[in-house]
Amino acid sequence: ALIITDECINCDVCEPECPNGAIAMGEEIYEIDPGKCTECVGHFDEPQCVVVCPVECIPKDPAHPENNDQLLAKFFRLHPDK
Ligand code: SF4
Ligand code: SF4
């Protein structure tokens, strides 16, 4: 999963881009639900939130390291119809 750092300026552009609905406003800044973030694996070649973020504040979450197989498995859990 990726994580939004405190450099987030709450510009709102990433939230609608997430194909998994993993991004939501938190108490002070936007937050990513690691249970829903597949790093866009299964949907896109690159993380869509990272593509649109104007301040580059969305790195990989060191607390939730995952390989491609794990991310793809999460994608299929989130989208059982695929
Ligand atoms: Fe959503 Fe993709 Fe960003 Fe994860 S990497 S929060 S799935 S847009
Ligand atoms: Fe924050 Fe970046 Fe999302 Fe804007 S695009 S709300 S700065 S994480």
TrEMBL record:
Alphabetized UniProt keyword annotations: 4Fe-4S, Iron, Iron-sulfur, Metal-binding
InterPro entries reported for this sequence: 4Fe4S_Fe-S-bd, 4Fe4S_Fe_S_CS, PSI_iron-sulfur_center, YfhL-like
SUPFAM superfamilies membership: 4Fe-4S ferredoxins (SSF54862)
One Pfam family matching this protein: Fer4_7
N-terminal signal peptide: none
Domain 4Fe-4S ferredoxin-type positions: 1-28, 30-63
Entry-linked PANTHER family: PHOTOSYSTEM I IRON-SULFUR CENTER (PTHR24960:SF79), PHOTOSYSTEM I IRON-SULFUR CENTER-RELATED (PTHR24960)
The protein's name: Ferredoxin
The organism of origin for this protein: Limnobacter litoralis
